[in-house]
Each structure stands twice: as C-alpha cells, then as structure tokens.
Amino acid sequence: MRWFGRPDGEYREEMDAHIDQETRENLERGMGPDEARRAALRKFGNALAVREKLADERPLHWWHDLYRDFSYGMRMLKRNPGVSAAVVVTLALGIGANTAIFSLVDAVLLRMLPVRDPQSLVVVRALTRAGKPDWFSHTDYEWLRDHNQMFSSLAASAPWSSVIDAGDRKERVSFLLVSGNYFSTLGVDPTAGRPLTPEDDSQKRAVAVISYGYWQSAFGGRPDAVGGKLQLDRKSLEIVGVAPRGFRGEYENRAEYYPRFWTPLSEQPDLNINSYLKTRNISWLGVVGRLRPGIDRRRAQAGARPMLEALRADLHVDPQNDYLGGIGMEPGSGGLSGTRDQYGQALRLLMALVALVLLIACANIANLLLARSAARRREFAVRLAIGAGRMRLVRQLLTESVLMAGIACVAGMAIGQAMVRAVVAMSTVKHLDVHMNVAILGFAVAISCGAALAFGLAPALQSNRVDPWTTLKEARLAGNRAGWLTPTRFLVVTQTALSLVLLIASGLLLQAVSPGFDEQVLQANLDTALVPDSGVDLGDRLVERLAQIPGVQSVSFSRFGAIGSGTGRTCCFAPEGYTPAPNEDKNVRTQTVSPGYFRTLGIALLRGRDFNEADRKGAKVPIVVNETLARYYFGTANPVGRRFGWGPDGPKDWEIVGVVRDAKYDNLRQETPRLLYRPAQGNQGPDHLEIRALADVGRPTAAAILGDCRAAMREVDSRIRITSFEPLADVVGRSLTPERMVSWLAAGFGILALLLTSVGLYGILAYMVARRTAEFGIRMALGAGRMSIVRAVLREGLVLVGIGLAIGLTAAVSLSRLLGSLLFGVEPHDVLTFALAAAVLVLVAMGASYGPARRATGIDPMIALRCE
After folding, report:
1. Alpha helices in 577-705, H assignment, sequence order
2. Using CA atoms, how far apart are residues 557 and 560, in angstroms rounded to an integer?
3. Which residues contact 402 (CB under 8 A, 6 or more apart)?
4. Distance CA 98, CA 300 (A)
5. What is the share, in percent, of the chain residues with pLDDT greater than 90?
6. In sequence order, what E strands does 684-798 have?
7. Quick check: helix, strand or coil at residue 824?
8. Rounded to whole angstroms, how far apart are CA atoms 86 and 90?
9. Are 590 and 568 in contact (CB under 8 A)?
10. Contacting residues for 137 by C-beta, under 8 A, at least 6 apart
C-alpha cells in the first residue's frame, strides 16, 4: 500500500539488498552461510522497527495510522456487539433530540430575511409602561423617521386584509400596508417592474407590488401582469412590480401575514371606514430600521430614551398620559416574527433540556466504556509491553468512540427529522419551513464529535494509567483500589443531579391554569366583509336565529374572541377622584360585547348588573369592568356607580354598572389585564359568536349541533364566511401550544433521563458486585447474613443517589426561576413538584439497585474463595 510516498515493497527490497550485501561480505571473511546471515541481521537490527520508522517519515503517514486505527476499531465493535449497540442507541437518542430542537431553533430564531445585509436591520419596538411590545402610531412613526440620528432609514408596515375580486370568485387575502421607503430600507429589488417609492406614499398613488407566489398563481408569471389591476372591495390598485422569489415580508414565519401584495400606507383610509393616519390615538404600525454605518444596536438603544423625550416635547405629549412607555431595539435580521415571539423562549429552554439529556447519555456511555476499559486492562498491558506508546492507546480508544459516535450521528439525524415532524404537527405553526441544511448538518457533526470526546476521554485516560508489569502479574482484578469517588461513581452522581433537574422542570411545566371562562362554549369566528350591513343588526339576527336551535342555551357576539384574538387598548383611563402615580401606566384593555355575553361564557357577575338592550341605544355608554381593574383603582370599595373619563381633563361621563370575574383574552401567559367591557353599538358587528350548547335534547354532545349552527348562519346571510368554529377548549389548547410542547417534550426527556440514570446505576452496582465477589464471599464465610450484603449494596446505590439529589435540588432551585415566564398559576419553587420528582428518582434508584443486591446474595463463598 502506498501512502503518498515510496511503497512498502521498495523499502523491503532496499533492506534485503543491504542485508544480502552484508552477508556476502561476511562470507568473504570466512564465515559459514548461516552464521554470515545471522551476523548481517544482527548488524542491521530489527527490520520491522526500521520499516515502522521509515513509514513515520512518509508524507501524510498519519493517514495510514488512522486507517489502521479505524480498522482495528471496527473489529472491536464487532467483537462486542451488545456494548456497541447500547452505546449507539443511547447516543443516537441524545443526538436526535438535540438535532430536532436545533432544527426548530434554526428555522425560528436563526434564519435571516432574504434581504441585503440583514445583520444591520433592527426591529424598533414601541413599549408599554409595563415593558410589553406594542405598535407605533402613524404620527410617532413619521416623527421617528424624520428625526432619528441612528438609522439611515426607518420603514413601517401593518398587516391588513381585504376582499379581492379574482374574476369568478371573491376571496379574502392578506397584504401589507407599507411606507414608501419599505423596499429600499430592507434592500429588496423586484423581479419585474419597480418597487414602491416615497412618492407613491406621499402622493397617495393607488399602486401595489405583488408577491412572486401570487404572480405565479394568479397571473401565470406573465410579464404583462405589471401594469394590470388588483380589484379590491373598496379600491382598485395598479400593479407596478413583482417581489423577488422567497421574499414574504418581514413578518417571517407568520403564514397568516404572508402578503399577496404590498401597497402604500396612504391607502389605509380607502380600505377602512376610519383613518389611522396622522393620529396618536391608534397604534398599529411595526417599524424596522437599518442602522447607519458604525452604529450598533446597543448604541441605538442608548439613544432611545433621549429620542422619546424629544418626540414628546415636539408633539406636546404629556408624559403622564402617553401610551408609549419606551422604545426598544431588537435584532431585525429575522424580521418581525410572531413565531419567534411565541416560541423563542420555549425553544431556548428545550435546547437547554436536550443538552442535559445528551450530557446524561454521555455520562451513561462513559460509565459503560469505563467498565469495558477495566475488562481490557490486560490487553492494554500487553500492547504497552510490546512497545505501543501510551498516546497510541488513547488515540485508539478515541477512534473507537468516534466510530460509534459517527454511526449514532447518522441514526440520530434520522430520529431528529422524525421528531421535528412530530413537533411541528403538534404545534400551531404548520407552515414552518424546517429542512436539512448545512447549519443543521454541521451542528449534528459537532455534537457527535463533542460527545465522542466527552464519553471517550475518561476510558482513554484510564487506559493511560495502566502499569503493564503489575497488570500482567495479577491473576485477576481484585477489589477497588482507586478510592471511593471513582469516575464511575462521579458519573452516576452527575446523571442523578441532571435527571432531577429535568424531572422538576417537566413537573412544573405540566401544570395548567384556568382561563376564567367555560371552555366548552363554542366560538365561531366570522368574516362579514361581503355583507353590506355587518353591524349590530346582523349580530342580533344571528343571535335570534341561533337561539332557536334545540340544545342552544344562549348566544352572544363580541368584537374580540377569547384567547389569542387579543383585546383593544385605550389610553388614558381616569376614574373620578383617583390620583395617578408618576409615570403610571394608564392603558386599559377593552372588549365590545352583546347583552348576554357573560352568561354565555360563564363569566360570573360579582357586582351590579349585566348589559341590556336599553344600554345600546342610550346617549351615555355604561361600562362593566373586571375585578382586576376594580381592585386596582377602587381597592375594596364598590365601583358600581363610579364615573370616569379619558385623560385628566376629559369629561367624566362614563359610568361603571357592573363588575365581573377576571378572564384572560390575549393569552394565558400574561397577568390578567385591567379590562372594561362596553356594549356593541352601530357598526360594531359580530366578528366572533359565542354559543353555549347543552346535550339535553337527546344529542350525544354539544358538538353535534355544529351543522345546525352553520346552516342557521348561512340562512341569516349566505355571504357570511365562517373561518373557524370550535369549542373554546381547542382555542385555549392552541394558545398553550408552546408551553404544552415544552412540557410534554420535557416530560419525555425526563423519562429518558430517568431510564438512563437507572441503567447507569444498575451498571455501576453490578460492576461493583463483580469486583467485590471475593469480599462478599469472605464476609458470608465469616457469618455475615444475606440481608447485610443487600443493605451494603443498596446503601452504596442510595448514597450515590442522595449526593446527586442534593446537587440536583440546589441546581433546580437556582435554575427554576428561568422557567418563570413559561409558568402561570404555579410557583417556580413548588415544594410538591420538587418532592415528587425526588421521590420518583429514589424509587427508580432502589429498583435499579435491587438487581445487583440480589445477585450479591447469590454468591457461594466457597466458589468465590476458590476463584480467588
């Protein structure tokens, strides 16, 4: 074999020529043939050693050594198929879990927008006084665009929807209202035509840039699409350009926001009844900016507070009555991703949990290989005795580890892809583009190499301490001479501590909280854009018709649905006789409902009265508040009859007529907001219907009336489009998808960690029993009872677990606060969860210890002593 140098045959021929020459010279000196040959060989030395030395001097000789190490490693894996399979399966599970979660992290958190220099983009966030993300008003955006010193340009956008005439049908489509500098700020060049410009916005041109996908589906990719028309229900837009393939706006990973087209912000009044332009009363715009050269995000954030103060001064805004509590800067390379906001923290936590699983798997494999390494001590001693270097042994063992890690990497990537499909299926982000790429492949290879080093280094270093002469003189391994805290015991303690952290985390995350309303109520989300009269009258007709269906107890409608649809926000709530604190958040959330809403959803009325028909026709609007708002502003006093207005100088002509129990609307993760309800009036129609159904008319379940309800809604007006119709329990379930995904995956990882820990504990105790066979035989020969042997083995196992529990509890207490944002209705330091996790781990440890303990009692003293 030739390895980039002279072949072995040439070396042998040259050495044979030297030996033959020396032999001839010896014959000429008078030696006999045999003696001449032996003398020549003695003078030349060890031919094999010479060939090895020459081989080491070849270019790239290390490649040849590596090939031999791998060949020998493959033979060793075949010789021990059980151990090899256990290592590969254990590591494949760890690598698969890590690869799956990293694939999701890559798709949600790391993927960048397909724009020019995405790293210099920054998402500029409007913040409430509580520090929560919000939207900017159009007036504030224009001021920031014209007066900031940190950005070369600032672009604004807002998701919108409208009905478009597609020729043979009408359909509702999503699009983006954008500022004129939108495409230039992002650095996006159209595939055809031109982008939107600031002049389009300032001169109110009715133009649009369509997406590449819509160009292909609606226009067949024809060039003459540019110059064509988009016919909306209220407006006709001229197509001036086509966005490049793959560009779907800055609302990345939000399928509901994927735009069919982009049109200037100035078109908003023509697409809606009310204008949102040139006002601070409505916040609705997301803002993305491109930093100037030499300015980073931290410097931009440092300038946010002075910029806000300057904005308030120029616009004559009272800081005490401002909806805008601050301005935040976030990385913008991934866009305004709602999926990142929803799943980002959950994925970071899962990444930490699967890293713990991989560490536990590595500890378990290291324990297994340490035991096998101890069994190979004589092999190592022989190799050292015949001249092998110690580093060669280390290299050989690491090579075997890398081989097993490589096989596990391939299997783990297949497992990871299956896990990704399962996680995406159980999530609400069905559209998420998760695919194998260079980053995921590199991550899998990196953690596989890291794992190989982690579990292969301990046995490799242990082999390096073998004394060949002492080992070869020993008849067998006797006792444990390395002290009590051996590497194997240390690894069991580590596994136990990590497993306890995982169990506690999964236990905390599995607990839930009530949303505050009846989850069995059916909710229908309606699109009434095609109905000319879609106000209160339409809602009343729907309520009246649906109430006639057998099994329906009550019906109501609302402006915002429950959980996920959010609520309105209004500033600045000013109750009569209440003095606000400096910089107090005066924003309150609002919900518009029909009479009977609280009864339908099962929201208890605590004080006062519900709305009635007279409230919807009166000049003064009565208000019902939730208990959080009542407690915040009025303490323990009865708020019914109290009046309030908007702003410190506004008239106090609004009256509170009732107080209801708290219910959550935006999501279950946030604290219950201060919320007021107002009766629907005028054009405030039925965006959402709530239907309380009973199974008291011979129907098996409330879900059986869904067909009748759909038919009744079509009977009222066939142009009503039902976008969804389901029990609120399903809506709540979707809103909790990130938490439930984390909790179930954490539970699965915890079970896997528990299994690995029990296997590791069983292995170390079984190994300990095998090493102490002679000791146990002598003790029983001297009269020790079998129960004392059982107690000795169990004591060793429980001591290891006890140390691991102490370390794990300390780590869990320190780390549980990181779960705070994913927990609601349960404390991060829940004593019951901590106690149950520890108890489960102790029970599993006792079960794992019982097998080796029982085996120890079966030792025959005579056989043990005879073997010794």
Report:
1. 597-601, 627-634
2. 9
3. 449, 452, 456
4. 35
5. 19
6. 688-693, 721-727
7. coil
8. 6
9. yes
10. 276, 279, 280, 281, 282, 283, 284, 285, 323
Amino acid found at 473: K
What does the buried/exposed string (b/e) look like for 303-320 if buried means 16 or more CB atoms within 10 Å of the residue's CB?
A: bbeebbeebbeeeebeee
Token representation of residue 319? 């800081």
Strands 261-264 and 170-178: parallel
Packed helices 61-79 and 47-56: angle between N→C axes, nearest 10 degrees: 110
Work out whether strand 588-593 and strand 568-570 pair parallel, antiparallel, or are unpaired.
antiparallel
Token readout for 825 is 């209705």
H/E element holding 676?
strand 675-679
The DSSP element (H or E) to which 134 belongs, if any, is: strand 133-134
Tokens of 710: 């759909």
Separation of alpha carbons 398 and 453, rounded Å: 7
pLDDT in tens, 63-98: 666 667 777 777 777 777 777 887 888 888 889 989
**pLDDT tens-digit map of 108-160:** 888 888 899 999 999 999 998 777 788 899 999 999 999 988 999 999 999 88
Long-range Cβ contacts of 390-393 (<8 Å, 24+ apart): 390/464, 391/464, 393/460, 393/463, 393/464
793: its two tokens: 């083995």
HEC string for 225-249: HCCCEEEECCCEEEEEEECCCCCCC
Q: For the whole model, what pTM was predicted?
A: 0.69
The answer to whether residues 307 and 148 touch, using CB atoms and an 8 Å cutoff, is yes
Residue 164 makes CB contacts below 8 A (sequence gap 6+) with 170, 171, 172, 173, 230, 231, 232, 233, 260
Half-sphere exposure for 626 (CA within 13 Å, toward CB): 20
Residue pair 564/696 in contact by the 8 Å Cβ criterion:
no
Indicate the length of the chain as a whole number: 868
